[in-house]
Amino acid sequence: MDSKGMLLIISGPSGSGKGTVTAELCKKEGYALSISYTTRDKRGEEVDGVHYFFTTEEEFHHMRESDMFLEHALFRNNFYATPRKYVEEQITNGKVVVLEIDVNGALQIKEKFPDAVLIFMIPRTLKQLEERLLSRKREGKVEIEGRLNRAIEEVELVDKYAYLVINNIVEETADEIDLIVNAEFLRPSRNSHKIKEFIGDDQNDA
Q: Highest mean pLDDT: which of 35-39, 88-92, 103-107, 173-177?
């Protein structure tokens, strides 16, 4: 991978397997998972600085006003945000920072990070998505119908993304995304220093 990393954003409907694929992807060398700030309470065995950075609403608003977030959102009466400093430091250190986030947040970040690579993930069919949501046994019929309707709305924005990935087998999906990342590192726009080196060497040889 290049000396400078990149920001990789993965979006998709609830139940598409984003979290599972992201975890598998981050087992590979060179990847770092972005950890979000949130004002919600910790759940179960969640650890501060591992699953989320847990903070108060007052401190959250202070950080937002200080432009410390790349994006932020309100979800079910709790705030969530992506920390600017962590992302920028990891990219400088050559890491591919993986951010699992919804469509609205992804488009917010794309404005600030034009070089970010956006991937939209879905299962093969809407029926399969419904089956996955039902298998989790977390929500009732009304909530699941709402998520399916939301999925259709999100898919309508897929043309804002650079890539569409179908998540069938987790390991294969992670490998496919890894191939995308390696291809992105070959773009001329990410290799201007190599072009300068080539021109310089050519001139010296002449």
A: 173-177
Give the tens place of pLDDT for each residue, 169-194: 999 999 999 999 999 999 998 888 88
Q: CB–CB of 134/89 below 8 Å?
A: no
The secondary structure of 1-30, three-state, reads: CCCCCEEEEEECCCCCCHHHHHHHHCCCCC
Residue 186 amino acid letter: L
Describe the chain by its helix, strand, coil percentages, rounded to 5. 45, 20, 30
- Flag whether pLDDT at 2 surpasses 60: no
What is the pTM for the complete model shown?
0.85
3-class state of residue 56 by DSSP:
coil
Contact 110, 116 (CB under 8 A): yes
Are the CB atoms for 72 and 65 separated by under 8 Å? no
